[in-house]
């Protein structure tokens, strides 16, 4: 599980709107990666809308923001259209990126154990190193905290 000051694990994933995003090609730019469990669930929807509403603020300080889940591109496209999302979403169907970032974890809900994505956010600095990590994210106030951290870079 990567932590602050570690190099961010590189990846290439498909992105909504077409094409791919390769993290290492974004060097020189701060990057926010928010990992979320599933499209169109209440917390994930609120978080994605929050990042979409603040996307211009992130762009104004030179940062790129991406949401990542294991949903398919077709699900991402429906989710984006349904909620008018502007934040780009990346599809990690194979799970290699969620595992590399340590967010694919065992969850326990009502006594039933299963594997899933732990809501987490990584702030990667312009040099490609992890500047800050938020684990077990609670959605209210999170986007604002991340934007504040980006501004402090």
UniProtKB/TrEMBL annotation:
The keyword Transferase does not apply. GO terms for molecular function: thioredoxin peroxidase activity. InterPro entries: AhpC/TSA, Peroxiredoxin_AhpC-typ, Peroxiredoxin_BCP/PrxQ, Thioredoxin-like_sf, Thioredoxin_domain. It catalyses: a hydroperoxide + [thioredoxin]-dithiol = an alcohol + [thioredoxin]-disulfide + H2O. The active site is at residue 44. One of its GO terms (biological process) is cellular response to oxidative stress. It holds the Pfam family AhpC-TSA. Keywords: Antioxidant, Disulfide bond, Oxidoreductase, Peroxidase, Redox-active center. Belongs to the peroxiredoxin family. BCP/PrxQ subfamily. Monomer. Thiol-specific peroxidase that catalyzes the reduction of hydrogen peroxide and organic hydroperoxides to water and alcohols, respectively. Plays a role in cell protection against oxidative stress by detoxifying peroxides and as sensor of hydrogen peroxide-mediated signaling events. PANTHER family: AHPC_TSA FAMILY PROTEIN (PTHR42801:SF4), THIOREDOXIN-DEPENDENT PEROXIDE REDUCTASE (PTHR42801). This is thioredoxin-dependent peroxiredoxin.
